[in-house]
Amino acid sequence: MTPELKATLATLPDRPGVYLMKDAKGEVLYVGKAQSLRNRVRSYWQKQATGGRNGYHVIREAIDRVADLEVTEVDSVSEALLLEASLIKRFKPRYNVRLKDDKSYPYIKVTLADDFPRIERTRKLPNDGSRYFGPYASASSVDEAMNLVRRLFPFRTCTIDIKEGERALPRPCLLYHIKRCQGPCVEAIDKDAYRRDIAQVELFLEGNADALVDGLRHEMGFAAEQQQYERAAVVRDKIRAIERTMESQKMAAFARTELDLVALARKDDQSAVQLFVVRNGKMLGRDVFFLESPRDVPDDEVLGAFLQQYYARATSIPREVLVPRSVTETQELEAFLSARRGSNVRLRTPQRGEKRELMDLATRNAQEALGREAARWLADEGRTMGALQQLADALNLTGPPMRIECYDISNFQGAQSVGSMVVFEEGRPRTGEYRRFQIRTVTGANDFASHQEVLRRRFRRVKAGEEGIEEERRWAMPDLVIIDGGRGQVSAAKEVLDELGLHELPLVGIAKEREELVLPNREAPVVLPVTSQALYLVQRLRDEAHRFAITYHRNLRAKKATRSAFDDLPGVGPKRRRELLKVFGSAKRVREAPVEQIAAVPGIGRSLAERIKAHLDA
Fold first, then answer.
1. What is the mean pLDDT of residues 406-428?
2. Residue 497: inside a domain
3. What is the pLDDT of residues 519-530, one digit of tens each?
4. Of 1, 111, 441, 508, which is most buried by a Cβ count within 10 Å?
5. 3-state secondary structure 152-204
6. Does one domain contain both 416 and 524?
């Protein structure tokens, strides 16, 4: 058993759900359901260890091959059963075929292609013009539904071919006499009247049974008041049968509706997005996506970024996307999704009812997935240390670089250059120690000089013992410095480190084209295997530094774009600026106003008003 699998088993929830067992290649070996995911899934390994019991030896071979486990919470075993069937149909796991005997779930079929439709149970879904309802959790649920429909809405059950205007039999059967059939075989009812009754059956099977249940409860109460307890019990059984008939997943409560539901869970710098895909009342798929999201990025931005990236590649976009809260640039996202779909798409946040309950369920799944992922990270310490050791071996370091700093420069056509510093300790990001630098001494797009300025400012920042223990730790010396760039950037960085006396500080650059590692005193680059964890770690550092620099640069550009003439007024701070805007509304109206009117604004005065006027007229 792998450390990751042990960590997953240790964090399983004590709730109903569905689990997928996967091998080392990611192939689904087995899909199962459970009242308690924790008890059921753990029991496979416990029973195997004790020799096994009846019912478990069937998948013993699968257990031996399991390398990973994926679970999805639901609210009931019925939901788990229906979801399990969907996943088995989707993945076709080899061990499920033997265990489930390859049986499908039952449906109710209305043969609308006939002049006088029949209602029957089936497990097949041919495209024959009939209408199908289901799937149901069990054959007994279908039988109860059929019996109830037969009692409430008489219909024919025979297989005689009956055409409108033709008398099929000389006399009706017993069902006609006991009022369980309208007798179309003896022309006791015409086609239109019969189909109206069938339409009522369809409405009932669709789930529009609230009015019917209310009427039955009133009837049951009246019978009880009249002490007709036997009749009340019969009506009670009808009500229970209706409720069992409507038993289905929460997703089926949105019949005739297609939607995607997106839930978010966050912890530290990691986020998990749970996606439920609902089509025609059934959940066709669900996936969990993990994102790296710094703590200072709000939830709405994380959601917006996910929606944009996911639906840029999605092949199926629904009419409605449910999100736990409003997202940034909602109108833009709706327009983007509508263009991709070819018709209107709405982003909505459910506040109450079944959709809110489903959102809460998806959120719990996202939280559980994030907890399992965190456990995997902790359990994966050996792999992370292996990556650090690989990197140390490739760069001839004295030991694994436990603290790594990576630097990147970002600018727009040479303007507003910024630098970023990201920190990884023991292979994991330390976002609290990330730093941003606004380039002050370099004009134009000069990566070499910009890197030099950033490194000078960083490594002159703190000397040991000068700023106290906490600040000293925040600016602790790294075991390795990585520069996003090639030979030129590395040479410029090495010049600064030598200037500051840091001759022995390991330095490496990562070239973008071939992902080669460039060392300052080595002509040939270091090429890490494309499958190595060390290369993945370096790439992750480089991408994080680039993202951090780009985010800072965009923020600066946005602030500059939104500056007004008020921002440069001499002697006018935020408070006076607010007073001017409250009175005049804009810089243009201040420019047009006489000095006396400007001086009348609270906190301004004659002297400052004259300076403001002169500045705006210049």
1. 84
2. yes
3. 998 888 898 876
4. 508
5. HCCCCCCCCCCCCCCCCCCCCCHHHHCCCCCCHHHCCCCHHHHHHHHHHHHHH
6. yes
